[in-house]
Structures are given as C-alpha cells and as structure tokens.
Amino acid sequence: MPKRVDHEQRRGEIADAAWRLIAERGPDAVTLREVSAALGVAHGAPAHYFAGRAAIVECAFRRALDDLDARVARRAAGLSGVAALHVFCEEIIAHTGTPFARVAASGPGPAAVLAEVTARWRTRLAARIEEGRRAGGIVAPAPDGVLVEQLLALLHGVQALAEPGSGGAGTSPGSGGAGAAPGEVVAAFLAGLGGGAARAGTAGPGGVPPAAGARSPGRAAVARGGADNSMGSVDGSGNGSGNGADGFLAFTDVALARAGDRLPGTDREAMALVLNLHRIAGSLVYDLESTVHRPAGWSWSAFRLLFTLWVAGGQEAGRAAELCGMSRAAVSSLANTLAAGELVRRTPTAGDRRTVHLSLTDAGTDRLVAAFGTHNRRESEWAALLGADDLAALNTLLVRLARAAHRADWINRRT
Fold it and tell me: Deepest in the core among 157, 274, 358, 395, taking most CB within 10 A?
C-alpha cells in the first residue's frame, strides 16, 4: 500500500529548505535542483507541490515572516511601548543575513508578501509608539506616523545593506571594513525616541538594548556630551546638574525661563501646568509598570484594559478603547495577546461579525483582582508624599480640570 504523504507538511519542508538556501546565498540560489538536493529527494519531487521556483520562494518568504511574527508575539507577550519595540527590532535584526528587500525584489509574489507584512507591522508599530508616548518613554517631537516610517525604513535599510549569510545580528562593528553593526544603528534610533543615545554596555543581542532594560522617562543619555536630558547640566553651565527631584525640577524651571525669554508672550503658568502634569504622569506610570505590572507578567496597557473591563463589564472593542484612552488598533492588538493568555474573551458581536466584544475570563478577573491590591498599595505610597489636605485639594482641582475639559467643545478627544 503506498505511503500516505501529508501534503502541507511536505510543502512546509520544501519551503524551509528553500529558506535555508536563501539565507546562505540569496533567492537566486533557489532552483528545483538545489531544493531537491537539500531535501535529498528526486530532482522533480518539489514540482508535485509547487508550480515552480517562484512559488517556492513566495511560500518560503511567507513562512519565514509568519514565524518571525510568532516569535515577536511570544517574546513581547505582556510588553508594550518601547520594550515591545526592542523585541520587534531584535527579531528583524536577527534576519539581516536574509535581507527581505532582496527576496521581495526576486518576483511579484515575494514583493506582495513583503507589502502585506509591512502593512501589518505598520499598524503594530503605531500602537507600540503610542503606548510609549503615554508611558513617557517616547518624547521625540516627530509625529508618530513619521516615527513608524523612519523605523520601518531603517530596519529595511540595514537589511538591504547586509550580505546573504553575513551572520545577522552577530556581525561585529567594522567587520569586513563595514561601519557600525545593524544593531548599533537601530539601538541609536530607539534611544533617540526617548531623547537620548544608547549607552555603552547596555546593548543586548545585535546591539539593541534588551527589552527588559527599557529606561525610565528622563533617564536616557543624550548624544550631546552624554549629558542626561532631564537630570543634568540643563542650562549648559552645570546649574541644575545632578540626579533625582532637583534635576527634574531644574529642567522644568529652565524650560519655563528659556521659553519666556526667547518667545515673549509665552503663558508660562499654562506651560508649567502641562509640563508638570506630563512629566509626573510619565514618572508615575513608569513606576507602577516596573514595580507592579511587569512583575505580574503584563504591561501597564494590559492592566488598563483589564481594569476597564472589570469596572465597566464586557464592552465592544471600540468602546473599550475609548474608556481606556487607547487607540482601537492598540486595544485590538492587546486583546489578541490577552486572549492568547486566556485572560480576555473575544466574541463576535451578534449581527456584525466584524465587531468584537471583549470581556474578562474568570482567570482574567482573578489575575486583575490579585494585581490591583499591589497596584493600590503603590498608589497609596505615592499619595502619602502629600499631606491629607494637599491630596484632597489636588484631587479636587484635577476633577475640576477634567470636567471643564470634557465640556470644552474645542478640545480634541479620542473617539
């Protein structure tokens, strides 16, 4: 009786063999003869599963990119913002020996695959950058959309400059007469998102700082003399240098003074309100995420979504995004991760299967309740920095500001 062959399994084996050839010598190395030799089968065997070499290259490319996405999802589970960006970049850099642009240029099929996957990455990167902005880890002045395109262009660029089989992320600076390793180039860009430059000794595989080592807002070193952007040498003369609250407040004082001097008519009281709220909120979020939520196995953004569903009950994804103060794309990506961890239930809405209803699972409720106790104790420690009267006054003022902003029809709000 003839042996039964799993058709999809055999296609996968052929595609994987083709990808190994691409990694070693580039897409031109993929021929029916070479693939057959790599598999140890008769010369015409792959033709039973693919229409030709172009179809093999396309399938191999798609499988490789899907595998990359799966690795990113596993490594970035529970991460958000800059930490998740590090993971994504590390995985891309690990493929510099198999430049995607070179594969895509080999035919219309691979080109379409790369275009499709790049569109997917664009959406995910936008969500990560938005998360980084909200957490205070990204302060670059360029619009988020520009940062997304810059990062995509940079990653595709370092790949396009790599030679097949060059060793990927392990390539050392200056090897073969080349300049900085791809990881160092990307690490410098990521550090710049936080207003600084990569510090020596902090790089992980491929020169990209490890995701777990994402620095707090205001603590990234800037390229100008390695000075700390918010803590030291804020006026160029040494005044306000040092660490901690003195440096934090010194930057605010100098920013207010310089803006007033250089731009007459600046409303410095209004500027102080926004600057202090933003910087304190960034520090608060970083502290809660690093001391409470990372140890709990998720991100600040994940906690926000779970807490929203716990308080408000199950919600349509768009409404949940509005209540969380997050984008729909960010909530959609986050819900996928939390659903994979069986913390959130995703259910198509009756009458419109394109709309997804989100709700907590029993496991999600238990995890949220357990984490909230730790979260609230940390909140109490922050609140204790003020006396009871000051705390009550601050809460009253913040509520008053929030209500006034809600009534003002000239303020743009997330919808």
Answer: 358
Phi, psi of 217, deg, nearest 5: -55, 135
Q: How many CB atoms lie within 10 A of CB 378?
A: 15
What is d(CA 203, CA 211) in angstroms, rounded to the nearest whole number? 10
Q: What is the mean pLDDT of residues 257-278?
A: 87
10 Å CB burial of residue 204 (0-12, 13-18, 19+) is middle
Quote the distance between the C-alpha of residue 338 and its chain's center: 16
**Could you say which DSSP state residue 252 is in?**
H
Largest CA distance in the chain: 90
Q: What is the DSSP letter of 202?
A: -
Per DSSP, the three-state class of 271 is helix
59, pLDDT greater than 50: yes
Q: Is the dihedral of CA 228, 229, 232, 233 positive or negative?
A: positive
H or E element: which one contains 95?
none
For 312, 346, 368, the CA distances from 360, given in Å and listed in that order, are 11, 9, 9
Identify the weakest region by mean pLDDT among 96-105, 116-125, 186-195: 96-105
Residue 198 and residue 188 in contact, taking contact as beta carbons nearer than 8 Å: yes
Six token digits for residue 61:
């490319």
Quote the CA–CA distance of 332 and 355 in Å, as a whole number: 11
Contact present, 102 and 27 (Cβ < 8 Å): yes
Q: Can you tell me the distance from the alpha carbon of 156 to that of 114, in angstroms, rounded to the nearest whole number? A: 11
Give 44 or 338, the one with higher predicted confidence. Answer: 338
Average pLDDT for the chain:
77
